[in-house]
Here is the input.
Amino acid sequence: MRFSLLPITVARHTRFFWCLFFLGGFVILAIGLGLRDPWPADEPRFALNALEMLKTGQFWFPHRAGEIYPDKPPVFMWAMAIGIALTGSVRWGFMLPSLLAAFGTLFLVADLTKRLYGIRIALLAGVALLSTFQFALQARTAQIDMSLTFFTTLGAYGFLRYSLIDAKNIWWYVSWIAMGIGILTKGVGFLPLALIPGWILFYKQGVVHHPTWKQYIKGFSLLILTVSLWVVPMVLIATFGDDSSLTAYRDNILFKQTGERYANSWHHLNPWYYYLASVIPWAWLPLILAFPWLIKHWQRRLRRRDAKIWMPLSAILLILLFFSLSPGKRGVYILPTIPLLIWAVAPSIPGLLQQKGLNYLATFTIIAISGTLLTAGVLGGYGVSSLNELSQHYGVVPWNWWMTIGALSIPLILWLKPHRGMLIFVIWMLAFWVSWSTWGYVLMNTARSPHDMMQNVQRITGKNASLALPDFDEEFVLQAQQPVVQFGFKTPLEKQLQRAYAWVKQSPDERWILTRADQAKGEACIDQSEKHDLGIQNSDHWWLLPGSAFSQCPGNKKSAPLYEAPTTK
Here is the structure.
């Protein structure tokens, strides 16, 4: 009886540790939820999009401060709107899509790894993902890219599970549907297709399962059908309606934000080697430290025709090549490569943890990072002028936080010893992100969010006064406590100001303008003696001026459109 129960006991313990791992992972990812407001650059915009959807009931076309927002499809905004509606709070709801996407990605990475290599390596792979710098950062950032990464990971999971494990058609079709939703989330949801060239190569060698041409056609049809669920109604509404802004949205989202943005980018211009030199060295920490040892391991795996390694690895290379060929590059674009990297590294992790050179390299790296934070914290606490000026500019005094998290490496190194450097690095990194999501959020929120400033604006103007925001940033509209108008996000500033002057003169006792101090100083017609100096917010100096301060400024009602933000009514 004792021996017959042993397998059941082991199985129960396995399930227990498996569930415990995911519970711990969820807690680590969720810590800090509700402690901060949306921060620039992208978070306030998407939160405002979602809030306007809930306020107006217009879910098919995203809007920003009453004006159509033409740069992204609405899927991510729908997810954020659901989060806000379920929690009843922007603070609690705006981070839910990224949190759930990160947790879903963690599950997919660990589950496929368990099916390929067993639960021990799967748990190590999950810890590696949680401690990878860019993944941990984006899991705590309410940008589109974490949600995109979930759908691209689901697409890759389906392809790899079909080809390497069970060849079940359901996973083949799930992949194409996931890519369709990924495209509706952010254009490049098709990235899992980068697995197919390596897939074909190994299929010809008889190593992996491969679908038939009919399955390819069905899969591609599912992708087109998924994308069409939103694109077709959007095109019909925009084409046959009488709103020119919807027509502009259609053309922008279908053409400018896709092919033109890739081939002829107009911002974030960087050289071809940008990802290799400026992103991967920090984004893939700590795994990047292991590359000298991994390269030899990968070479052996290639000679053995190990598709489990080379399919994700070849996809990473193709994705990096794809983004490197575009003149416009942002570090966050390569976030979807991290789950693929974990799959490519996973079976090597136990051996890597035994490499003395790698562990000492990891120890040296963590000493450099934590030592920099500790030194900066001590010098800032002692009042070094350059650091104090930096602190005043950003409105944050982080010295105690930096000293604490920097000093944490000392007991870790003394306890675990330098020959366990990778373990030290992982523990320190997880502790850093927990501190970032708690202590850091509390320290930085006032500086990154204008919530307090906009409450001060209401106290000065009175809650019934209206506020104009020329050259506005979304976070000010999101945190506004009174009616707000703006004059077109892409309208030239000079024309916005002319329209703002005309608007404020119509009721100078009840209308105010919030503007950057440097803009107001450049306008000789403004009576600057009436200003209310609001100080620094998001690195800019802000003034609040009553309508009477613009009596000498020439206005023009026709110079720009006027939009009323529905979330502030």
About this structure: Residues 1-10 have pLDDT under 50 and may be disordered.
